[in-house]
Amino acid sequence: MFEQSEADNLNEKIRSWAKDNKAELLREIASLGIKHYAYSRNPQPLAQALKSSVKEKNGLVNRISFKMPRSAVFLHKGVSKSHPKTNPRQAKEWFNPIVNKNTDKLADIVAEGCSSLVVNSLKIK
Length: 125
Known about the structure:
This protein has one domain. The chain contains four helices and two strands, in the order ααββαα. The protein has helices at residues 4-31, 46-49, 70-77, 96-113; strands spanning 51-57, 60-67. Strands 1-2 form a two-stranded antiparallel ribbon. α1 (4-31) packs antiparallel against α4 (96-113). The radius of gyration is 17 Å and the shape is elongated.
């Protein structure tokens, strides 16, 4: 299937994409003015709480994950405890636009490395 050096090269390109994508997400958080308030239930600001990880299976990266507090999803959708779906606040879509914009680049990286891999688009639902 792959020589180890090819697999390592592909894995490194994918890890680099994940790192770059996280950096762009952090820039988007800053540009939208998303702040952490003392009364927040979250102990950390979103910029510190946002984590990414890359998992391998059989020597190839097969998963890129982004972990964030649940409130980050609510922020993205424009809802909160005091602003339900029936009375939403202004949504700050910080995640999907960035990931959608960068998914084509990831698809190109994977296609170059192995045309048989399938890339799933990442979205908050």
